[in-house]
Amino acid sequence: MEHTKGKWELDNLAIYVTEFGGGRLWIATVCVGLPKGQKEETANARLIAAAPDLLAACLMAREWLGSDIVATSEAQEQMDKAIAAAYVAPG
């Protein structure tokens, strides 16, 4: 399964991807009424909007670790877990 490609952007608590034609496609909206209030809601929305960039960074780091002689198998294993978690996220 692949995520929606493009630049994910945050607009209040809604996450959109900017389409090549200039339009926006709605991806998700973070629920309101969380125990810690607006700060928690905003933090969750920012994390969701950053997900494609975080995955790309993990993939790049994994590639870098795989090419480095001093990279430990434990570090590679942890990076693989992070990448796998991004691909099998609930939803």
Q: Topology, pairings included?
A:
Elements lengths: L6 E5 L2 E5 L5 E6 L8 H30 L5 H15 L4
Antiparallel strand pairs: 1-2, 2-3
Beta-strand content bin: 15-25%
Number of structural units classed as domains: 1
Q: Helix and strand succession? A: EEEHH
Query: Helicity range of the residues?
Result: 40-55%
N-end to C-end Cα span: 11 Å
How would you sum up the major sheet? 3 strands, antiparallel
The number of helical elements comes to 2
Low-confidence residue ranges? none
Would you count the extended β strands for me?
Answer: 3
On the 0-100 scale, what is the average pLDDT? Answer: 79
What structural category do the secondary elements indicate? alpha+beta
Major sheet: arrangement of strands: 1-2-3
Work out the radius of gyration.
16 Å
Overall 3D geometry?
A: flat
How would you concisely characterize the structure shown here?
With 91 residues, the protein is of the alpha+beta class. It contains two helices and three strands, in the order βββαα.
Describe this structure as you would to a colleague.
This protein is of the alpha+beta class and 91 residues long. The protein has one domain (7-87). 49% of the residues lie in helices and 18% in strands. It has a three-stranded antiparallel beta sheet, covered by helices on one side. The protein is flat. The mean pLDDT is 79.
